[in-house]
Request: fold
Amino acid sequence: MDKTIIIVTGAPGSGKGYFAERLMNTIPGIFNLSQTDITSVSTGDLIRREIKSESALGHKIKNITEAGELVSDEIIAALLKENLAYNPSKITILDGYPRTSGQVRDLVQIIGNLPVYVIHRDTPPELVLKRVKNRRVCAKCGKVQTADHADCISCHGKLVVRKDDAVIEKRLELYTKETVPALELLRMAYPHRCFIINGAEEAQDSVLHLLNGPLSEIF
Ligand SMILES: [Zn+2]
Reply:
C-alpha cells in the first residue's frame, strides 16, 4: 500500500499542532491501525533527529543552528525525503511544513504520486491573539495551560509565556506575507483533497468529522 501524506496547515497559534496530535491519536482506532502505522513529522523534529544521529549532515546542521542561522530549504527537503523513504509508517502527518512557496515546490516534487490530503485549520486572527495571549507554559514540567491559574495545575511550577508566543504579532505578519501565498500554491497542487476546518471548533470534533467524512476513503 502507498504511504498517505496528511498536511496540516494554519496560522501560528491556530492550534494546528494540537490538531495534528489529535489526528495522530484518533486515526489508529478508526482505521484499525497500530500507533506505529502513523507518524507525525515537523521540521523541528527532523532537524533534532538528524543532529542526534551524529551523521555528517547532522554535524553540519548543528553548526548552522548554533550560529543562529536558519537551516536551508534544501537541507529540510533532503531530511524529509529520507524520512518518507525509510519511515515504515502508512500515514505521515506533516505539521508546520511547508511554510514558503519554495518549500511547497520541494514538497510536491518529494511526494510525487503519493496520495495527499491538505487540512487547513482556519482560525480568525482575533481568536489566535486571544488564545496566545492567554497561553502559559509551566517552566518546570512544560505543560501548556492558560493564564487563569496562579501556578502549574500539575506540579505548581511557575507559569511563563512561551518564547514563540511573546512574538506572536511578528509571526502572524510573516505568516501573512510568506505562508498564505505558499498555501495558495499548495491548494492549487492538490485541489481535490484540500479541506478547511473551522479553528473555533473543538479539535477532536473536527478530527472525527474529517475521519468519518472525506478522509474515510484513505482505507
Ligand atoms: Zn508543571
